[in-house]
Amino acid sequence: MAALILSQAISSLTDKLKQFNFQSPSDPIIQLSVSIKAIPAIAWLSAQPIYPRIYWKGRDTEEEVSAIGNCKDFFYEEASDDNQLAMAYQEQRALSNNQDIRYYGGVAFDRTTESWPEFGRARFVLPRIELRRSGTEYKLLVNLNCENQDTESERRNAIDSLASLAAPKPLPPPNKVSLLGRNDRPDRYHWTELVNKVTHPKFIKETPKVVLSRLTQLEINEEINPWMLLACWQGRNPNSFQFGFQFSPDSTFISCTPERLFRRRQRELFTEALAGTTTRGLNQEEDALLATQLMKDSKNSHENQLVRQHIVDVLTPLSNYVGAEETPKVFKLSHIQHLHRSIRAELKPGVDDFQLLLALHPTPAVGGLPKEPAMNFIRQREGYNRGWYAGACGYFNKYESEFAVAIRSALIEPGRINLFAGAGIVSGSEADAEWVELENKLTTILSILTEL
Ligand SMILES: C=C(O[C@@H]1C=C(C(=O)O)C=C[C@H]1O)C(=O)O
Ligand SMILES: [Mg+2]
């Protein structure tokens, strides 16, 4: 069937729902879809009256999704041990054989401490409605969860959700905010203290890397549309993942991150070591010189090498084959450049996405090495709650899944923008230079928000 315009697609899906025969559903989870003509996914999402509102765009893939509402919500607000999460995942996975069903969500950086309200330590949803783009093909989908509901009420809920969809409206134009205040946690004094603790020879011998981070809170008067902000960010760094989660109007987590946690296609796995940072040059020569210096620099090489080695070590027992690039490449973003090594693995049969998530996250690109002492140090000393910053966000799907590391991210609340930035502290790190690295990691988002 030819692609329909949005209003026709909604009528067509509604008709399909009305006619759907629930007599002997082969699968308790049902997905219906129609092809539609192109519509701007973020602008459409921003106009919808239903929550949650979720946006996802892959990095090297042509995958883009706007999802709204939910027909299943896995929300772990309080302490949850990872086995409990793994079990819930297994049970859910066993429910359906449909290859197209996706659960979108994320896990907090540290699932043993308090996270943000509404986001929790882990939260995944099967959306009610999805607008999916793959390349130039767009689809509108509706999901039904008939596991324990009576099927007629589920049918009605789906029809009602479709009826409440709004037409896409253009996003508001970007506006610069005037800052009423800025507050850094840890502040520069405490940052220096923390970096000095980590780089103390006795400490660094046992714990060669700790990724320390900072929360920067901007107080503002203006209202800011988080989806407009994400769309601007996407324009600056198109070679990054972009995603956003909004479970209620007043709290939205957005990220424009270059870092992949993993992408799995059947049993083929792609991941990477992304660590080591410098700025972009003002012209081509300066830019190339900075890149060469980054490649040669021992502190930055060490930051990256530790991540590469750790990922290879954790993947080895789960894989028939693991290969990692020996020589790093340079990954360029609008204001900074990183060292990057690709890693590919062929998974053993039966290894599932949740196992991969638990094995890989948090990598020493955002946590540290060894994992536990580094996590303890962060938990006890950093002085603020990371929540979903440096967590893992993405989607589970039987055939292929993808997760990104939620850095270069912001939590947007009324009157306040919370920005996050971290830096890998290794032997040779200096507090002042690492503080500047944090600032450099915020330049892109700050240049969108303020007159720099
Ligand atoms: C932790 C962050 O980034 C990580 C730290 C890097 C570094 O210290 O060089 C580079 C990329 C990421 O691995 C962040 O941006 O918040
Ligand atoms: Mg660094």
From TrEMBL:
GO MF annotations in UniProt: isochorismate synthase activity; magnesium ion binding
Gene Ontology terms describing biological process: menaquinone biosynthetic process
Keyword Signal attributed: no
UniProt cross-references to Pfam families, sorted A to Z: Chorismate_bind
Catalysis performed (reactions): chorismate = isochorismate
Pathway of action: Quinol/quinone metabolism; 1,4-dihydroxy-2-naphthoate biosynthesis; 1,4-dihydroxy-2-naphthoate from chorismate: step 1/7; Quinol/quinone metabolism; menaquinone biosynthesis
Top EC class of this enzyme: isomerase
Active site: 209 (proton acceptor), 259 (proton donor)
Cofactor: Mg(2+)
InterPro entries (alphabetical): ADC_synthase (IPR005801), Chorismate_C (IPR015890), IsoChor_synthase (IPR004561), MenF (IPR034681), MenF-like (IPR044250)
Enzyme Commission code(s) on record: 5.4.4.2
Keywords: Isomerase, Magnesium, Menaquinone biosynthesis, Metal-binding
All residue ranges annotated as the Chorismate-utilising enzyme C-terminal domain in the record: 190-441
Summary of the function given for this chain in its UniProt record: Catalyzes the conversion of chorismate to isochorismate.
Record-stated family: Belongs to the isochorismate synthase family.
NCBIfam families noted in UniProt: isochor_syn
HAMAP family, per the entry: MenF (MF_01935)
Protein name, per record: Isochorismate synthase MenF
Organism: Shewanella psychrophila
Chain's gene name: menF
